[in-house]
Amino acid sequence: MVAKSSKNAINIITVIASFGVIVGTLALFIILSGFSGFRLFTNSMLQSSDPDIKITAVKGKSFINSPQISQLLKDQSEIAAYAEVVEERVFLQYKQRDHISYIKGVSNNYTSVTRVDSTLSVGQWLDPEFLNSAVIGYGISEKLSLGILNFGEPLYIRVPKPGTNYISSQSAAFNEVKAQIIGVYSGLEEFANKYVFVQIKMARKLLNYSKDQLTAIEIKLQDGANADSFSKKLQKLVGPDLKVETRIQFNALTYQVLNTESLISYLVFTLIIMIALFNVIGAIIMMIIDKKENLKTLFSLGVTLKEIKRIFVFQGFLLTLFGLFVGLFFGVSLVLLQKKFSFFMITKSIPYPVEFNFYNVVLVAITILILGYLAAKIASSSISKNFIES
Fold first, then answer.
1. Rounded to whole angstroms, how far apart are CA atoms 112 and 150?
2. Hey, which of 164, 203, 214, 343 has its CA 20 to 30 A from 360?
3. Distance, CA of 42 to CA of 231 (rounded, Å)
4. Is the separation of the CB atoms in 131 and 201 below 8 Å?
5. Per-domain boundaries in the chain
């Protein structure tokens, strides 16, 4: 009865240990796949809102787009299209509501540089025939309770006038334009709360800019062009007074946050798996105790301690390997099912993003196998000559 009870206890502990490895593997793989999905989702949203390359002034907010710069850009075979941009922080007022945001004046070909028009949730993109039209972000629309085609009351866009003269009235303190909203765009929270898109002529009028004065030139590259190498080449061509950045560079904070969160999540779940692997150590130690008489026989026959320890290390490794394969099977299945059927949703229209890639499979496999091997090694270290002979 004692032997049978002991074997039942060992079997239960082994099942628990295997279950811990399975759940740990499953959780780690799903978390990594989720962050891979978020990275792709963020990339797709940034591709809609941001250009491949952006040129800005090193000093000050604006620069003059000289004929030499325009010709230089036209001569680059890697450039598919480029657009002129005027951007500035502004005060918005609609009826009794106020909000601080950014105006972004863009040239007529701006949709050739970014796919921002594809993010419209209602209305239409800017029409060059209507100078005083504007497209706003969904976040701004909510904060101002402002929809499209509100012809009864325009959106007032104001910027402070330069200078230190005595302010006698609002008109003396601010430059002002009025805009009718014809479209509302959506996207990442920061983007949806940031911009009021208008025609570049309107932005220049508001800021008292000259005809060729810009805050940025945004560039779309040809398919297959390498953004990093081209940005370095273009930087040499435009000179030190202008700064050339890729999408990753001017969104460095966003990518840094994603990478940091992914790393922290990996480390946290690795720690949880390490705790779960104490069950593996316990299961192996119970096996060692149960097989003590067999170990004594093997030792008497000339089997060395090192070889006996290797048996239990291999047994622990096999237990971990079984849990790894089962956990990855369920993890991969859940990720592929989520991609196809979207069981879990962030909103009613946006499924929780996940992405299957072999890098995550390899990373999870290496992590689990190394930790499993260490757990088996720790458990087998309890075998000693005194233990066997006692």
1. 28
2. 343
3. 22
4. yes
5. 2-45+255-389, 51-246
Q: Please tell me the pTM assigned to this model.
A: 0.80
Closest by Cα among 150, 219, 215 to 184: 150
Tracing tokens 């779309």 back to the chain, one arrives at 220
pLDDT, tens digit, 9 for 90 and up, residues 234-273: 999 999 999 999 999 988 888 888 889 889 999 999 998 8
Q: What sign does the dihedral 381-382-386-389 (CA atoms) show?
A: negative
Give the pLDDT confidence of 130-177 residue by residue, as tens digits: 888 999 999 999 999 888 766 668 899 999 887 655 555 556 678 999
- Encoding tokens for residue 161? 């006038």
- Residues facing 17 on adjacent strands: none
Tell me how far apart the terminal alpha carbons of the chain are, to the nearest angstrom. Answer: 23
- Mean pLDDT in the chain? 89
